[in-house]
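Action item from last week, closing it out:
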Amino acid sequence: MRKVVVTGMGTVSSLGNSLYESWTAVQRGLSGIDSLTRFDVHQMKWKVAGELKGFDAGLYLSQKEITHLDPFVQYAVAASFMAAEDAGLLKPSEKNKVLSLASGGAIIGSSRGGITTIEKAIIKQGKSGCRMQDAGCEMHLTFCILVSGNQCPCPKFLL
């Protein structure tokens, strides 16, 4: 049997934007569920959810990367950097660097990532009058983005 060593952890969640913030909220019995603020919910039945508050992707990504990456991929990159920092492989001042972690890896957990990208593609298709069957290429790209949360940190860490 092979052994696995967990040397660092990172998290971005509705409980906090770091492992410390999230764990402290769990210990205090706090909930990450609150009123939604990212979009208008006045006509929706559900008005609460677990939503990130105060997340700054600029601490981990360039402005160009932020513009092109779905938010859930930004969260995955941030959590990966936090884990590398927690493991002592990265100094806090090096968060926007490419690292060589050829003997390491990152395990990412995400739920329904890419929703923002899918929503934008569907709205774009609706405005252009495209039918879903005519937009196969764009929808294919959208669904490829869905699986990219686990893959995006790799180029930043040269895994």
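Closing note: Strands lie at 33-35, 48-50.
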